[in-house]
Amino acid sequence: MKLFQNQLMIQNNNSLSGKTCFITGATGGLGKSLASGLALSQCNLFLTSTNKKKLEELKKNLLKLNPDIKINYTVCDLRQLNDIKKTIKKFRTTFQNCDILINCAGMLSVKLLSKSIITDFNSIFEINVRAPFLFSKEFSPDMKKKKWGRIVNVGSTSSYEGFAETSIYSASKHALLGFSRSIQKELKSYGIRTYCFSPGSIKTKMGRQIKGQNYSTFIDPREIAEIILTSIRFDNEMIIPEIRLDRIDKI
Length: 251
Fold this sequence. Notes:
The protein has one domain (about 1-245): NAD(P)-binding Rossmann-like Domain (Rossmann fold), CATH 3.40.50.720. It is built from seven helices and seven strands, in the order H-E-H-E-H-E-H-E-H-E-H-E-H-E. The protein has helices at about 1-15, 30-40, 50-65, 80-95, 120-145, 165-185, 220-235, and strands at about 20-25, 45-50, 70-75, 100-105, 150-155, 190-200, 240-245.
């Protein structure tokens, strides 16, 4: 039994070696943790965010972790279709195929419904829903050709519930969950596995916007990254397409 477990661990640890991963929101707390874990797993990386300086620093740190992988990046405002097109073009000049897509970028607005405006709605849906749709549409044909792929959508406990003053954000995360469920069924016969990970409040810059909660009890993004990476490494007959991650409140 121990021999079998050891063999399984080795298989899972090596299953991402040589793959290429595209990550949005790469310089955020969760994005950085995911990028670090993937770099250590011998995975090539294409990183996007809205901050060039942070992308440069992240690339430098990742290459210290693993100098043998290929890394490129670009600044991309996911609200702008031209930025998305330029980002895809740059990816295609660097890598032939995308094996793993991680839609990690997100936008949160904490406002009463009466104070919310249409630009809030458009921006949140463009980042939280439209961008995952566009990148999934772009890269899933690569995965189909190879009969292997991973699409990771980072949802929220708001994918399942509604909270006061976050009506637009909650709606966008419900939409992302529905999208994930649909493409999982549509793409699974091609060897593509789609996941929606829905964590509670995370210890990130975005998490600090949440009102009325104890930030010290929020989830460490490194723990969430560990769960995500363990799931996408697993390459046998089982898949858990939806995982809801709740925090344990400290007393």
